[in-house]
Amino acid sequence: MTADHDADGELLDDETLEKLQALEARAYTAFDAGDLADAAILFGQLVEWTPDIPHLHYMRGLAHKYLREWALSLQDNLRSEQLRDEVDEATAWNAGIAATGAGDWAEARRQWTRCGIPLPEGEGPIDGNFGIACVRLNPWSSGETVYMRRLDPVRARVENVPLPESGFRFGDIVLHDGASTGHRTYGEREVPVFNAMQRLQQSDMATHAVFVQCEGPEDIAALRAMTLPGIGLVEDWTHSVRHLCLRCSYGTPHQHDDDHSDGETRDDDHWESERNLGIAAQGRAAVEKLMAVWTAAGSGRVLEAIEQREHPLPDPEPGQVWWLGQDEAEEQSS
Q1: Burial 56-84 (b: 16+ CB within 10 A, else e)
Q2: Which domains does the chain have, with CATH numbers?
Q3: Cα dihedral sign for 88, 132, 310, 275?
Q4: Distances from the Cα of 108 to the Cαs of 27, 44, 75, 198, 242, in angstroms?
């Protein structure tokens, strides 16, 4: 607590100041423990006593942000902004995230401009090209990591076919956090990994798990090259899906004891004829037609099954500190 005046501008006595300092310590402890609802209440009590301290509004806004209460988070960040003499980048970013989550595009554009980020001209949702990055879906749960194409600083379209259990789809528009938790390789360069916070728009491309047999990678290449109405993307999950340790899921890949010393993947060592595919499509009929064309066009191609199951998006639970990068999480737990 850095101020010693109450809401009416009166000087606080030592006993009251000590109580407020203890209240602030409790608020930070609750936040650090992932008890966000309690943290928001405690920071709110502090704001009532000392409404002109910007970092208290910022912290309450941060708690509302991770509760995904966008209107409340935006309100707090705007008040924090008003109380500062100069631009605070963290406040502006969180205001931009909250405005995006709330669908307040005018305010989102204003905040990104305050951060010095060039934007496409116009009004409404930003439809720009902010490059390729990775996003951890449900970082409070499975933490599946997929590639995405960024439409604005915190909004992106999913570019992979996520596993059905994630609840996400190819083509979903997601809101992600502004701070990266690590990096992944994309081609010959590294791209940041961000935590997904919420799905903003569901794709019409449902996920179909398709199980096939084929004799070599050229068969899968042929399937991926086919284009039919209603088909969004074919992904060879046998090749692309890795079950990673926690550090790797945060985008900090490192050497494992059982890693290939020459960097080869299991597909380079030995072709597995049984393949698990993820196919994003508008309906089962489109998948059936695609697979019929594929199996008829080459020998040794066998369709075993097509499955399509919907799963709900899991919500974070109290006590989860899911927003930290791996290094931050380790530092906090030590």
Answers
A1: bbbbbbbbbbbbebbebbbbbbbbbbebe
A2: 14-114 (1.25.40.10), 132-203+314-333 (no CATH), 206-254+272-307 (3.30.70)
A3: negative
A4: 28, 24, 13, 16, 36
The Cα-based distances of 276 to 19, 163, 286 in angstroms read 60, 11, 18
- Structure confidence by residue, pLDDT tens digits, 318-331: 999 999 876 565 55
Res 327: pLDDT: 59
> Do 175 and 101 form a contact (C-beta atoms < 8 A)?
yes
Which residue in 95, 322, 87 sits closest to 195, CA to CA? 322
Local confidence band at 12 (pLDDT 50, 70, 90 cut-offs): low
Strands 189-201 and 132-136: parallel
**For 245-273, what is the mean pLDDT?**
53
**Tokens for 89?**
């980048």
User: Cα separations (Å) of 112 from 68, 98, 293?
Assistant: 19, 12, 47
d(Cα 156, Cα 127) in Å, to the nearest integer? 10
Tally of residues, the chain = 334
Q: Are strands 155-158 and 145-152 parallel, antiparallel or unpaired?
A: antiparallel
Identity at 162, one-letter amino acid code? P
Report the C-alpha gap between 316 and 68 in whole angstroms. Answer: 10
Indicate whether 213 pLDDT > 90. yes
Is the pLDDT confidence value at 290 over 50? Answer: yes
Give the residue from 249, 272, 79, 241 showing the smallest Cα distance to 163: 241
